[in-house]
Structure formats: C-alpha cells, structure tokens
Amino acid sequence: MSVAKTKQLIRVGHSPDPDDAFMFHALANDHLDTGPYQFTHELVDIETLNQRAFTGELELTAISIHAYAFLHDKYALCSCGASMGEGYGPMVVSRDACSVDDLKSKKIAIPGKLTSAYLGLRMCLEQDFEYVLVPFDEIIPAVQAGEYEGQQVDAGLIIHEGQLTYAESDLKLVLDLGVWWKDLTGGLPLPLGANAIRKDLGEQTIEEVQKLLYASIKYGLDNREEALAYALQYGRDLDQQKADKFVGMYVNDLTLDFGPAGREAVTKFLAMGHEQGILPELIVPEFVEL
After folding, report:
1. pLDDT tens digits for 140-163?
2. Where are the domains of the chain?
3. How far is residue 160's CA from residue 172's CA, in Å, rounded to a whole number?
4. Helix, strand, or coil here: 154?
5. Residue in 14, 25, 72, 160 annotated catalytic
6. Does residue 160 carry a catalytic annotation?
7. How far apart are CA 285 and CA 287, in angstroms?
8. Assigned architecture for domain 91-185
9. Which residues does 149 contact at the CB level (< 8 Å), separation at least 6?
C-alpha cells in the first residue's frame, strides 16, 4: 500500500484588501494544482506583516518595499505580485485645505513606520515629521475626529481603498505620492508592496512557488468577474464599481511582472531613501526571475 507523501507547507501572508484577495483567489479557493505544496493563508494588515517578516515565519509574504530594505537578508522579491501606483498612490488628506509645506508642521496619522507610504512621505517632505501610528482602516475616522486615542491628528496618510473613499468623509486631498513620484522620476510607477519569498527555501522551491503565485494572478485577470466577487468581501466601504476600479489600479501587467520600469522604480526608491539618510544602507533589490 502506498503512503501519501506529505506536502510542503507554504504559509502565505497578505493584506485583507480587494487587490490582494483578487491576486490570491485561485490559490485560496483551490483553482490551481499546487503539486507538492500546501498553501495556507493569513490575512493581516501590511504593517503587521512587515514586522512578522523579521522572524521569517512565513514562506511567502506581502511586504512593503520600505520594509524590504531591512529584510533583504531573509527574503527575495518575487517578480510577480507587486503593488505599483502608476501616477497614483498613498495620499495625505486633511479636514481643511492646506499646502504640502504645511504638512511639515502637522501631526500626521500613518499606517506604519515600515510602510512605503511613510518612506515616500518622508522623502517628499525631505524631513521627518510628527506622526501618530493608526491602523490603516482607522485613519480616515481619526482625521475626521482630529484625534486618535487622545493624540492630536491634523492629517492622515491613507492607503488601500481609502484612496477612493476619502472625499465621502468630507476630507481634502493635500498630496498624492504617486503623482509626486511620477513627476520626480519622469514617469516611473511608485513601488509600494511586493510578495517576498524566503531565501532558505532553496532555488527549486522558490521557482515553483513563484510560478504558482504567477498562475494565481493570471487566473484572476483571466476570470475577472469571479475573482472580483471573491475580492469584494474585503472591500469594506467599496461598492462593486469602486472595487473593480481599485483592483484595476493595483492588479495589472506590472503585477504579473515588475518589468524594467518597475525594477528601476524599486531601485531608485531604495536609493533615494539611503541618500536622504532614512535607510541605513544602500540596498540593491534582488528579484526572483520568472
């Protein structure tokens, strides 16, 4: 009698938002033959995933490009699964209209110190600023209220679907980091997040797991309505039309492969962080080739 071979466990971490759910729909709902691998999924906010990556507990995890600067010894960047803003990205919003220069003296709610949004805003302002750490889905209410757990909040750095819904809360757009970065770099997309795979898995496993990640993204793009229906449960305040728009913003050709422009963007983003003294060392990103 033959004994079934135990499958290798691949623990996957990603954000509970529509674009990540769309990407992982095929893997999470058994639409792919995963061969010798068993995938389990943990849906956690990006800053928590950034922090957890330091212990290397997840074989495949979404991380911020900012966090990668501190994790490159443990993880390599998958060529697929990127979140890039092509002329759009994290935004700073406030109750009352103000200028970008005004932000330098305001207390800003941020979704995490290792997020690419925070690194981008520091580079844009060319200085550090006062901040309050607030879970990403509580930033808009905190800006509306002017405080979070007793701490003053003058403005908020919003990520995920808040980029499409902030106006419904009567908030004013002060800065779109995607626009700033595009203008600064002559048209490059803003690198925000990536899927990172643990280096100690070995070359064969890394290659095979990345192929399955690619197949899951491709399945979603080829079966858009089905994948979008699954992703909608993570849309919070998004209706179907807005969820479709949001997924289109962050799951596209650059998600299938960073491409030359995406790779250049990541390299420039990390280099600028080092030049401004925010990142302690110059990191040259390492991509797993498809």
Report:
1. 999 999 999 999 999 999 998 889
2. 8-84+190-288, 91-185
3. 17
4. coil
5. 160
6. yes
7. 6
8. 3-Layer(aba) Sandwich (3.40)
9. none
